[in-house]
Amino acid sequence: MSEAKPFNPWSYKPWWCQPWSIALTGISLIVGSWVLFKLIWLSAIVAVPVSIWMGFFLLVWPKLMQEYYRELERGKGEAIEE
Question: pLDDT by residue (tens digit) across 18-41?
Fold first, then answer.
């Protein structure tokens, strides 16, 4: 029996929505706010939503997509057995 390839949600996203581009954009925004204004409180205000955004798209979204794909595959298997 052939083994299925693991599901990679990033293969369905364009280049500008890959992990490296998300991380690079987020880090650039945070560092850029510090370089431009040199105010820690402003950089912190920028860092909080940007970190949440990066955390969601780099950690939470891929896991959700893998779970969804597993459920989808499980549903296909049950439909075939019926």
Answer: 999 999 999 999 999 999 999 999
pLDDT for position 76: 79
| DSSP state at residue 14 | -
Helix 40-55 and helix 19-37: axis angle, to 10°? 170
* Distances 40 to 20, 27, 34, 48, 54 between C-alpha atoms, Å: 25, 15, 7, 12, 20
DSSP letter string, 27-48: HHHHHHHHHHH--HHHHHHHHH
CA-to-CA distance for 71 and 82, rounded, in angstroms?
Answer: 17
Encoding tokens for residue 9?
A: 């949600």
Q: How far apart are the first and last CA of the chain?
A: 21
63 vs 75: CA distance, rounded Å: 18
